[in-house]
Amino acid sequence: MKVIQYSQIVEEVAKLCKTACCIVTPDMKAAFKKARENEVSPLGKDIIGKLLENAQIAETRQMAICQDTGMAVVFLDVGQDARIEGGYIEDAINEGVAKGYTESYLRKSVVNDPIFERKNTGNNTPAIINTRIVPGDKLKIKIAPKGFGSENKSILKMLVPADGLEGVKKVFLEAVKYAGPNACPPMVIGVGIGGTMDKVALLAKIAAARSADSKNVDPRYAKLEEELLELANSTGVGPQGLGGISTAVKVNVEWFPTHIAGLPVAININCHAARHADVIL
Amino acid sequence: MSEVKKITAPFDKSVVKTLKAGDNVLISGTIIAARDAAHKILTETLAKGEKLPLDFTNQIIYYVGPTPAKPGDAIGAAGPTTSGRMDKYTPTMIELGISGMVGKGYRSQEVVDAMKKHCAVYMVAIGGAGALISQSIKKYEVLAYPELGPEAVAKLTVVDFPAIVAIDCEGNNFYEVGQAPFKKI
């Protein structure tokens, strides 16, 4: 059995918050470069160039890529043979988020309740924590801060089996058009298919946080990722919605078995910042 | 891409009329930061018949909620936020005499109608390019509602702040014009 200290989790989470918010990942930079090369709209090309410039400034100056440093979405893979010592793991995550957002000059964007008071909690907590218990004795922490320009454009639909693949594509297209310039394209789009209402939303979120250079291990779904990308880029939305062929740089699909009577679909859109950082303890 | 037009803010309606959908502009001067919570308070203050904390005549409103500035910096990352969230309040702000807005994303028909009626322009900055845009912001001074934190009303001193005219005062919409040639479905 491996022992992981509470304090270590706090420190690692604080570091991950900074890294995710200030560094554009290599997969996204590569995707931008490819998009800049392929883009036919001169304005679109110019905008993608500016995104690369923005990434450079953020990294050099250790400054947030985007002012909306998001709500901290955390994915935990907890090895069933690992033991956390010194306190409750969710407290450690939240303490790490508070520390990271405060010490690294990130914007605190969380309010205490959604309707009545809406008072800023002042430290960007609570985080959204998704935990899986997995084999082994390691703890994997992945942070994907989510801004709400893109999050607000998510769609979840409970289709029926007769809607089939065409139905999925229709919902996808609806989401891309609904997002338009508001979600800061070129985007990474996460698609969840299957499971239940709650499961499909999580699948879409996992997909949205996946790298731009990854693909689904199932070749049928990998092909679907390609098809959906082409579909997104035929809308004309383009970089910042000002026209072009680079509406998305990547579509990631995650799926799960579902009920005989259902076909849940969720689309979670990630902006061009598509932040993610992880560590294995 | 069109020629870059250099403009000084605040500016009056005579300048608004020269800005056309699709124009690239570089803004220098001062602009006013205000977003969701500030718009809500401003319109509530007006409805109560109370005095506003500043005169909005000819001002350019920037929808922004920056990250905190690091020591030695004027401001943190400061890209535009989604303008549509301000749509409910914008016709009132336009009636108050603002000349324009800077944000990102689509606007409602009510906003476009008010822009045409009172001669105002809607410009967009690159969403998410907060680090890049911060380089053109030289000073950040909170004018009102400091308790709102990143949502406080502030005066920004800018030099060559880059933006694109999305909707001009005649209602021409560059989102439509720009997307049309690439739309296949």
UniProtKB/TrEMBL annotation, chain A:
It holds the Pfam family Fumerase. Keywords: 4Fe-4S, Iron, Iron-sulfur, Lyase, Metal-binding. Its EC number is 4.2.1.32. The keyword Iron-sulfur applies. Residues 11-279 form the Fe-S hydro-lyase tartrate dehydratase alpha-type catalytic domain. NCBIfam families: PRK06246.1 (NF004885), ttdA_fumA_fumB (TIGR00722). Belongs to the class-I fumarase family. This is Fumarate hydratase. It comes from Campylobacter geochelonis. The gene is ttdA_2.
TrEMBL record, chain B:
Residues 13-176 form the Fe-S hydro-lyase tartrate dehydratase beta-type catalytic domain. InterPro entries: Fe-S_hydro-lyase_TtdB-typ_cat, Fe-S_hydroAse_TtdB_cat_sf. GO terms for molecular function: ATP binding; fumarate hydratase activity; hydrolase activity. Pfam families: Fumerase_C. The keyword Hydrolase applies. SUPFAM superfamilies: FumA C-terminal domain-like (SSF117457). Keywords: ATP-binding, Hydrolase, Lyase, Nucleotide-binding. Its EC number is 3.6.3.-, 4.2.1.2. PANTHER family: L(+)-TARTRATE DEHYDRATASE SUBUNIT BETA (PTHR43351), L(+)-TARTRATE DEHYDRATASE SUBUNIT BETA-RELATED (PTHR43351:SF2). Belongs to the class-I fumarase family. This is L-cystine import ATP-binding protein TcyC. The lineage of its organism: Bacteria, Pseudomonadati, Campylobacterota, Epsilonproteobacteria, Campylobacterales.
